[in-house]
Amino acid sequence: MFSAQGPSLRELTAQALSSVEHGYDLLAPRFDHTPFRTPDTFLDAVGGALAALGPFEHGLDVCCGTGAGIRVLGPLCQDSVTGVDFSAGMLAAARAAHREDGPEPRWVRADVRAMPFAHGFDLAVSFGAFGHFLPAERPALFAGVHRALRPGGLFAFPIGAPPPVTSAWYWAFAGFDAAMRVRNAVWRPPFVMYYRTFPLHAVRADLVRAGFTVELRALPEFGRRRDGSPRGRLVLARKP
Ligand SMILES: C[S@@+](CC[C@H](N)C(=O)[O-])C[C@H]1O[C@@H](n2cnc3c(N)ncnc32)[C@H](O)[C@@H]1O
Description:
single chain, Rossmann fold, binds S-adenosylmethionine
């Protein structure tokens, strides 16, 4: 599937029947050859928007996987870059992939629903991982990022506009989420991955409840919908 170096259908099935953590351990060696790794166009759009708000000192990539977000943090952060993820396999792949790229990032294995940092970072980013958190888990996730940041620190991540009900993507995402709910009703351990559980209004409210002030910026690289609203936005959540 995907490409010659990507995972086979059999490997993807084994992943989908595992827990999130073990599933990513299995996928890790081939992850960078799947569309699940955040594409560089997204990373560069976010990096460009954040450059105007920097420089920063210490950066954190939340759910770093194989280290896609390091491409954003590296040029922006003057002192250190840290990636946190609970999959040992993904962290091993990240370590191997970024060995040659200047100062070695710090890789930390932890569940980000119980973030092990306090007041050490002035920038946190996250890419492509929020589908792995149920809405009820967002308060713990956001509280942990808030605690990890210094006063004045920034939590930034891109968020896409939901596809219109008339588009094929709308039905593809709805179908995927429905299939995942059935899978999780009949199979243990659960594999939490939903496309439609991270709506901007609810996310914004949870960020505010966690103590952030929230600003949105359009990401012009992704164009606009027919109604004029941006297809991609950057959420800038600041710890006062
Ligand atoms: C789709 S990958 C995204 C990786 C990378 N950020 C990217 O954009 O390519 C999602 C990552 O989130 C991690 N993850 C999911 N739930 C997590 C949790 N509760 N704590 C830590 N990491 C988690 C997975 O291990 C996986 O590496």
